[in-house]
Amino acid sequence: MEYTHVPENMSETAEDNLEEERSGFGQQLLEGFKILVLEDAPDTRAVVRRWLERAGAMVQTVESAQDAWDYLSHTVPSLIISDIAMPGQDGISFVRELRTQKMADLKAIPALALTAFDDRSVQTLALGAGFQDYLLKPITSRDLVFAVLKLSVPPAGATTH
After folding, report:
1. What percent of the chain has pLDDT over 70?
2. Are 134 and 13 contacting, i.e. CB atoms less than 8 angstroms apart?
3. Which of 99, 104, 86 lies closest to 127 in space, CA to CA?
4. pLDDT tens column, 44-80
5. Is residue 3 situated within a structural domain?
6. Does any domain span residue 143?
7. What is the CATH number of the domain that holds 71?
8. Structural domain of residue 61, as residue ranges?
């Protein structure tokens, strides 16, 4: 399959994100959420982590599907955010395999695709593999927090605003 690649430069939305940081957008909206971020690009991993933590989430980041499987062997997160194109097992095959797990808790984890591939066929493939939603990079922290809220049931005891 041929992909149309959009640059991953998360700083393209730097002005929007700076304004969101100044306004305090998202603070504690994700309190109690446990989120696994599977992303091979270190800069993107760090930015996504910062945005989610600023919103109150507990975040575990990993750079490969194997690291994600290791984490899932002992922890069930509220949500998985995964890049699609990665070396080794890509995000689509990772989520497809996740949906075949025998353990119902793993099988049912909501998954959000985060990718730089701007191609309708890739989006269709991702949703068909078991992702519930798809965000195209570059994104803003607001896009990310709203996507997480849309896909997740607040954890027991979480504060709702």
Report:
1. 78
2. no
3. 99
4. 999 999 999 999 999 999 999 999 999 999 999 999 9
5. no
6. yes
7. 3.40.50.2300
8. 10-151
